[in-house]
């Protein structure tokens, strides 16, 4: 399949129609290039808070609830576009209010009209200490007409056991937003490591550029990237496609899921199968004095 990952700038929106036009343009641009799976970034939905004015968009707490109130309508728009272009869309994540505190929620929208929901598992320090966003539902494996798809939102991609929980996935999507180049590289390295361990495809999307109206987002650094196991039939770098940092637009690459199955069965190495060989060897290391 062809996968498209977004390097997505956030806008100050003055009307819902402006948001509809923006999203329709992005989806159509990827679809016309043959993309079948489109991945938007973490907290890309925060631009919806600007519809309630600068005071709301710039307030940490108010912005969470403002966006949460608009996610259902945003999902209806994604459903319409997914059906129109016959594509699967990982919608930009945003806060979804639960009984206690908001979670960070991404949604996988199918052209047949279904919605899969994936919440972030582990919060960054900002989310935990300042925004008070909490972890949400369990990790999901979405069995789609394209293949088995999972989602690790940004920081989640940096944890191998979360990746291992998605070992059945052919593709793991990694929506991200990072405020520094170091943050971008942490998520990119995590995405590449998960592709190595699971012998699968990972697709990283990013928010890019300035959002000075938001105390939460500010300036973001990132790029679209599509990664693979560096094994037989794939690029030796483990990179199927990557964009220049902070260059808005789509990164699009062909991902051969038959080749994923091939390297899992008979690769030069078998990381996914051999994961279990760590068990029993992963206790505390023995200290050996060589002074």
Automatic annotation (TrEMBL):
Keywords: Hydrolase. It holds the Pfam family CN_hydrolase. SUPFAM superfamilies: Carbon-nitrogen hydrolase (SSF56317). Residues 1-257 form the CN hydrolase domain. One of its GO terms (molecular function) is hydrolase activity. It comes from the Bacteria. CDD domains: nitrilase_Rim1_like (cd07574). InterPro entries: C-N_Hydrolase (IPR003010), C-N_Hydrolase_sf (IPR036526). Gene3D superfamilies: Carbon-nitrogen hydrolase. This is Predicted amidohydrolase. It comes from Sulfitobacter delicatus.
């Amino acid at each position: 399949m062809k996968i498209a990952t977004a390097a997505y700038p956030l806008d100050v929106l003055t009307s819902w129609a402006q948001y509809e036009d923006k999203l329709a343009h992005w989806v159509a641009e990827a679809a016309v290039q043959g993309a079948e799976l489109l991945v938007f970034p973490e907290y890309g939905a925060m631009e919806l808070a600007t519809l309630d004015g600068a005071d709301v968009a710039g307030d940490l707490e108010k912005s969470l609830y403002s966006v949460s109130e608009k996610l259902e309508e945003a999902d209806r728009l994604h459903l319409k576009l997914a059906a129109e272009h016959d594509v699967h869309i990982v919608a930009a994540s945003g806060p979804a209010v639960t009984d206690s505190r908001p979670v960070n929620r991404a949604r996988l929208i199918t052209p047949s009209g279904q919605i899969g929901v994936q919440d972030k598992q582990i919060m960054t320090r900002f989310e935990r200490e300042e925004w008070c966003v909490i972890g949400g539902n369990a990790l999901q494996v979405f069995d789609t007409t394209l293949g088995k798809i999972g989602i690790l939102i940004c920081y989640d991609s940096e944890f191998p056991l979360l990746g291992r929980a998605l070992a059945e996935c052919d593709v793991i999507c990694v929506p991200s937003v990072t405020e520094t180049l170091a943050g971008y590289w942490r998520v990119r390295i995590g995405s590449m490591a998960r592709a190595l361990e699971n012998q699968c495809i990972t697709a990283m999307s990013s928010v890019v550029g300035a959002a000075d109206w938001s105390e939460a987002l500010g300036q973001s650094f990132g790029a679209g990237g599509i990664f693979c196991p560096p094994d037989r039939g794939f690029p030796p770098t483990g990179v199927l496609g990557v964009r220049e940092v902070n260059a808005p637009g789509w990164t699009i690459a062909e991902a051969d899921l038959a080749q994923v199955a091939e390297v899992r069965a008979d690769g030069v190495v078998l990381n996914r199968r051999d994961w279990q060989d760590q068990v029993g060897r992963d206790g505390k290391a023995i200290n050996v004095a060589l002074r």
